[in-house]
Amino acid sequence: MNTVRTVLGDVPPGELGVCDAHDHLFFGSPLLPGQELRDASAARAELAAFREWGGRSVVQWTPYGLGRRAADLPLLSRATGVHVVAATGLHQAAHYAPELPAELRGRPAEMFVNELTEGIGASGVRAGIIKVAGGFHGLDAHARWTMTAAAEAHRATGAPIAVHLELGTAGLDVLDLLCGELDVPPHRVILGHLNRSPDFVVHRQAAEAGAYLAFDGPSRANHATDWRMPDALRALADAGFGDRLLLGGDTTTAGARSVNGGPGLPYLLRRVRPRLELALGSELVERILIENPGRAFAVEWRRD
Length: 304
Description:
Elements: E1 4-6, E2 9-11, E3 19-23, H1 40-52, E4 57-60, H2 72-80, E5 83-85, E6 87-89, H3 108-117, E7 129-133, H4 141-157, E8 161-164, H5 171-181, E9 189-192, H6 200-209, E10 212-216, H7 229-238, E11 245-248, H8 267-280, H9 282-297
Parallel strand pairs: 3-4, 4-5, 6-7, 7-8, 8-9, 9-10, 10-11
Antiparallel strand pairs: 1-2
Helix pairs in contact: 1-2, 3-4, 7-8, 8-9
């Protein structure tokens, strides 16, 4: 039976409800000094605000070493009634200063598998996805190394692989590596940030390959592509790929939280959803927010 692995245990995909398919409750990186998401009370307020707008689940793409605070996630999920999915995996090398911890320079796949099946550190919270990252229009040695480990962990557990695409680029390179060389089934790969590079041809090629396409991080000051997202989603839906689409908010800084005056988690449902309903119709948007995440994140888990 396929289930989604949340921080409170495995649930049927139909229980996810309206899902923010890519966001962060906790996150910290040397690339974003002073903007760390560390405040548990702020995270709880953000989740509560998301639920008030109809949100029922959030997938946190924060991987190893970037302040996941896994032990806090079950407490927040219980307190707010919002399902939370945690991540294992590794981000780009630049997020780990000055370098990766020594214990990860050997076989990161073993760590990924352990966090998916046994739990993240002493928290006992099991991850539900593997997060990795590409580079700008290409894959460096670190990206190939982490994706190779992710593919190994996928084969051992069945877990889906969620990929940060730098400014929305290199999605086809990711699929060539993961699905071509490393034999990961395309429907187990989620390509993130495609809204940041509104290349409709690449979007369609990625969808034709069988991957899930996440449009996440709308209304960010360093992106000028929000207005293209409805057209991109419509083009994919018209081509028959409405079942491949996901939406997320990708809140990565304290200033972006709604409790601090930013868009935050609620923005996806408060502003993005009605805007997309005008362009796509409410039926398709409901499928993107509810049905598609259930398929993308639910697997028949191995090595339980």
